[in-house]
Amino acid sequence: MNADDTSTYATVDLQRARRTGVPEVVYGEGKTADQIAGIVTTLSRAGQDAVVTRLDAEKAVGLPGDYFPSARVLVHRQTEWKDLGRGEILVVCAGTSDLPVADEAAIVAEALGNRVRRITDVGVAGLHRLLQHTDALREAHVLIVVAGMEGALPSVVAGLTDRPVIAVPTSVGYGASFGGITALLGMLNSCAAGVSVVNIDNGFGAAYQATQINRLP
Predict the structure, then answer these.
(1) What does the pLDDT look like over 91-130, one tens digit per residue?
(2) How far apart are CA 113 and CA 79, in angstroms?
């Protein structure tokens, strides 16, 4: 496949950065390694940063940029990184098993021009761990809270801060978690105000939404 010609499989949106402030982000799952290489090449030649999500390690071989295996994200910068946000995005992760989704959110948010801090393994089974970080929860401009199982953590976090909380359900959990549906429904039914919810395992979607909030004047 000729990486110079993407016309047979993709129409790369090189104007998206002008319209939305963020270049097109490539969803790697379901694409071949050659297709991904062609799209990244097209973005790079246009002077735009390339971010690829859901990219398996074998497809990342030979691609330019930095690959983060736990998040399955590739970042290839063509521009100097700048802090484009008004504050800090805080990514809060309930358990170690939720880390791949939290990593996707954190890495994409940073690639999009945000200062990012992380708090890891502070799920509600040991609530004292979260309470040690109340200052960080209140200092952040926007929070991304990642949790599986019953998905309770975003409700707790939202009750401790006046900042917007973006909840990310993960597919982590035993059978009754139904691949993340239990966490998703729990977050959608949160009694804490100010919680918005993205789809199961959608760290990218949370990072994008947090970026939009963090850039508001």
Answers:
(1) 999 999 999 999 999 999 999 999 999 999 999 999 999 9
(2) 11
Residues 149 and 178: their CA atoms lie apart, in Å, by 9
Cα(199)–Cα(170) distance, integer angstroms: 9
Which candidate, 76, 34, 30, 78, places its Cα nearest to that of 55?
30
CB of 119 closer than 8 Å to CB of 92: yes
Portion of the chain with pLDDT greater than 90, in percent: 91
Helices (H) and strands (E) in the chain, counts: 9, 9
Q: What is the DSSP string of 21-49?
A: SSPPPEE-TTS-HHHHHHHHHHHHHTT--
**Tokens encoding 190:** 């949160």
Burial classification of residue 80, based on how many CB atoms lie within 10 Å of its CB (0-12 exposed, 13-18 middle, 19 or more buried) = exposed
